Amino acid sequence: MSCEHLVCANCSGPVVEGRCPTCRAARAEVHRHGPNVPPALVLAGLVALLFVALLLQRLYG
């Protein structure tokens, strides 16, 4: 969903322009995303998980 076609009930302007506080709040709500995790952190987590899996396989396999 995008705010390009939304009209503000407060100022009757396009929400994408952010003319009033209500527009800006609605635009921020539409464009809010989840937590940003750096790709390097994801890669480090995968490498750590692989290391633990290989270690467990070596110990119990």
Give an overview of the whole structure:
This protein has 61 residues and is mostly helical. 52% of the residues lie in helices and 0% in strands. It is built from 2 helices and no strands. The protein is rod-shaped. The protein starts with 20 loop residues before the first helix and ends with a helix. The model has no long low-confidence stretch (mean pLDDT 87).
Task: Furnish the topology, listing elements before pairings.
Blueprint: H1 21-30, H2 39-60
Along the chain, the helix and strand elements come as HH
Mean pLDDT over the full residue set: 87
Strand content: under 5%
- Tally of contiguous helical segments: 2
> Could you tell me the number of beta strands?
0
Termini Cα gap: 49 Å
Structural class: mainly alpha
Low-confidence stretches: none
As a percent range, the share of helical residues equals 40-55%
Shape: rod-shaped
Largest sheet: none
Radius of gyration: 23 Å
Summarize the structure.
This protein is mainly alpha-helical.
Characteristic terms for this protein:
single chain, 61 residues, 2 helices
